[in-house]
Amino acid sequence: MFTCNFEVSSSVKEMIEALGVPHTEVDVILVNDKSVDFSYVVQDSDRMRVYPAFESNEITPLIRLKPQPQHQARFVLDTHLGKLAAYLRMLGFDTLYRNNYHDKELATISSEQERILLTRDRGLLKHKAVTRGYYVREIDPGQQLAEILRYFNLAEAIKPFARCLRCNGLLQPIAKEMICHRVSANTGQFYNDFHICLTCDQIYWKGSHYERMQQFIMQVLQKEA
Question: Which of 22, 68, 78, 201 has the CB geometry, 3.0–4.6 Å to 125, for a possible disulfide?
């Protein structure tokens, strides 16, 4: 609990974000024990409580500020989270990423496609258009992945190797004879199971890279167990 002094009255959203908390991480705001939305204009002597998650049913009517959880988690990531994007795709999550997205573009994609915006930039999450977003705390990509799985409770939604690591498209099995002319002779000789991306036509098979990825996934899941 602390006292906040201000010279000009502003919305509770502006005041909360001025203190460094993105509005996307706020679930409930109570002002003088009454539930309010982000448009509430703060008055002198107001007593405010801000919750990232709120479980009590004692306050009525209660205004929930976070969107309802999605049936399937879909993400868009900023330019600093390329490795995390690859990991999320590896686990089968619909994840948009480009290394040249602009902030306005990210906010628009998140809003129009109802995707969760993952970023290391708190300022980006303060964009008015962003309603679904999360500030990634960890620095290491592997720990970032564990953080996201834990925060959004995604362990049971994992579907490894269902998406293309390069473009995010869905993969489907393809007969070896259909693509044998596109892989090396050694690959065609030692491998029989192949998948192809429906979007970019990339071919995948269970080589040594697949085994390393499997080991990585097992390590992540063991930490979350």
Answer: 22
Kindly list the structural domains of the chain, giving each domain's residue range(s) and its CATH number in brackets, ordered by start: 1-65 (3.10.20), 74-157 (3.40.50), 171-224 (no CATH)
List phi, psi (to 5°) of 136: -80, 120
CA 119-120-123 angle, to 5 degrees, is: 85
- CA-CA distance, 210 to 207, in Å (whole number)? 5
Residues pairing with 205 in the sheet: 194
Of 193, 18, 2, 171, whose CA–CA distance to 92 is shortest? Answer: 171
Helical packing angle, 82-90 and 141-151, nearest 10°: 60
Phi/psi of residue 33, nearest 5 degrees: 70, 15
Strand 133-135 relative to strand 116-119, pairing: parallel
Q: Which of helix, strand or coil describes residue 196?
A: strand
**pTM attached to this predicted model:** 0.84
CB-based contacts of 110: which residues, under 8 Å, 6+ apart? Answer: 76, 116, 117, 129, 130, 131, 132, 133
Q: Give me the tens of pLDDT residue by residue for the chain, a chain 225 residues long.
A: 778 887 777 899 998 998 889 999 999 999 999 999 999 999 989 999 999 887 766 677 888 888 877 768 999 999 999 999 999 999 999 999 999 999 999 999 999 999 999 999 999 999 989 999 999 999 999 999 999 999 999 988 999 999 999 999 999 999 999 998 999 988 888 899 999 999 999 999 988 788 888 888 888 777 766
